[in-house]
Amino acid sequence: MSRRFTPKVITANLLLDGDAVWLTADDRWSKSMLDAELIEDEAHADIRILFANGQANIVVGPYLADAKAGPNGPEPTHFREEFRTRGPSNYAHGKQVELN
Amino acid sequence: MYKYNDFDEAFVRSRVAQFRDQVERRIEGQLTEDEFRPLRLMNGLYLQLHAYMLRVAIPYGTLNSRQMRQLAMIAEKWDKGYGHFTTRQNIQFNWPKLQDVPDILEALADVEMHALQTSGNTIRNVTADHFAGAAADEIADPRPVAELLRQWSTDHPEFQFLPRKFKIAVSGGEQDRAVTKAHDIGIRIVRNAAGEIGYQIIVGGGLGRTPMIGKVIRDFLPKEDLLPYVEAVVSVWNLLGRRDNKYKARIKITVFENGLDEFAQLTDERFEQIRAGFTGVDQEILAEIEQFFREPEYLTKSIGAFDARYATDPAFRSWVDTNLSEHKADDYAIVTISVKKHGATPGDATADQMRAMADLAEAYGHDELRISHEQNVVLPHVHKADLPAIYDALKVADLATANVGLISDIIACPGMDYCALATARSIPIAQEIAQRFDDLKLEHDIGPLKIKISGCINACGHHHVGHIGILGLDRAGVENYQITLGGDGTQDAAIGDKTGPGFAAEEITNAIERIVMAYLALRQSPAETFLDAYKRLGLEPFKAALYEEAAAHAAE
Lengths: 100, 556
Hints:
The structure holds two protein chains of two kinds.
Chain A: E1 8-14, E2 20-23, E3 29-30, H1 42-53, E4 59-70, E5 73-76, H2 79-86, H3 95-98
Antiparallel strand pairs in A: 1-2, 1-4, 2-3, 4-5
Chain B: H1 6-27, H2 33-42, E1 45-47, E2 52-57, E3 62-63, H3 65-78, E4 82-85, E5 90-93, H4 101-109, E6 127-128, H5 143-153, E7 168-171, E8 185-191, E9 197-203, E10 215-222, H6 226-240, H7 251-258, H8 260-275, H9 281-291, H10 304-312, H11 314-323, E11 324-326, E12 332-337, E13 348-350, H12 351-364, E14 369-371, E15 377-383, H13 387-396, E16 411-412, H14 427-440, H15 443-446, E17 451-454, E18 468-475, E19 478-485, E20 497-498, E21 503-504, H16 505-522, H17 530-537, H18 540-555
Parallel strand pairs in B: 6-7, 7-8, 16-17, 17-18
Antiparallel strand pairs in B: 1-2, 2-5, 3-14, 4-5, 4-13, 8-9, 9-10, 11-12, 12-15, 14-15, 18-19, 19-20, 19-21
């Protein structure tokens, strides 16, 4: 029996500046994970990753990452994905300053 | 130092033009990412967690002031105003944009630099002793050989699709400062009984998932046999290497699985086949290269002002005692500039700091700078008379930390703050440990102690050969840090012993402090270093301090 599907988001890096982005329900790539489409159905995930793979001139390396619903939108469940939502911890660089 | 000839210049420019075209085609959609990825990696361009990263080679760690200023310019114009010096004598820019990279490569070519073969399954940047040409214990300068190897390996048609990456290091002194025993090939310049200079060849060393200390495959290789012999080694591995499993593809596994004797015999057979093809032209080129690495014209001047400052200024004295090494010339010293201020990111220098170091090299250092694998910057040739002025300038640039070789002079890979391969962060751990021991004001009392931190099993932070090694792992979705003790990256190379279960990020600094306090309590005298004490006592007393004290605290 296959494992139960857990909620996911689709994430990738932008081709031009390499920044982390997330796929929204209306087919945009947002720099904020809170805008991402939270995918709770495996068949829908298959369709969405196919779409993401077709966006090769905008993003690089799309993949499904575990996520959970939060009060303002999807949130990461693993520390690696959490770091991708904010940037490095040694300098105020990346999203932690650019998104505000 | 080496000066590009017309061929080098044309070659590097042609590669920049090729990559410019490849980037344009990728952006226009004519190349897929699968097609583009190997092309960008050949040019040192990675895609990391938050951005692209460009890894620029600093061959054998040698730079002049003009090159250092150009790195500062690149950091300011196309990055966020800083660069990261790595454990392989490279500099990494963490925030370039894809469309800017061809211009960055062009700017590098303007100062005879490149990012070629800093990634991919090729022969990587050839590293060397960062005290090359200056160290008192040196038999010969390793850089001409390293430059010869750079030219030979760059775009070598047989070695562009190797089973895996391949790293060569060259060391010229009795002290091995280039970690030759942890390289795919380590070359040590030696003298035989007749007094002739030749090479000891070490093969099959490496860290990573399966750490191994390199084995001596040739005790003394005559000078003229170097290139054909190294080519024979790489050639034998190229055919035997395990392309079926990337974790078993490095030469250390090939040598281990086939045995050193078998590997040596195959190498000898191959060597005999190809030796005749080397008609001696390589030795002519080497002789030309050697002309570029002549010793500087040393100055003679009074060191009275130095002596006076040394006698009266304790901060200056501490810096001199800690950051200087013995130079081969009278009244000269080797200055290691610590790029490890307590609490800062190991190996990161701002554009202003790069310019300050370039200015010092130009004014006082015969225009030479070195990058060490320990992520510091070296002024290899400094007259002692100039040390007070250098120290004062370093203080202004926030580069005068007196901690070289001490517990806060930590090697750390970028870890999960930047690297897509990492399993945990390294930088904040290094920052916290350095800060802790600075707060305790203990590091000069502790003495020589090398902490090395890697954020994944690939071991870019050399944790296996740290006196105290720290490996960051992902344990069930939490950062966890495993400790090894007793590693050594010198001529007495050793892989550290695992202590046992790892520690959470918020516990690791306390754990390191317990180990160090145990050492201070156990050492016979301040002259017994941590490593010596560990060799005498073994793992057990340190393990007891590490885990039993932790258990006692937990029970309180």
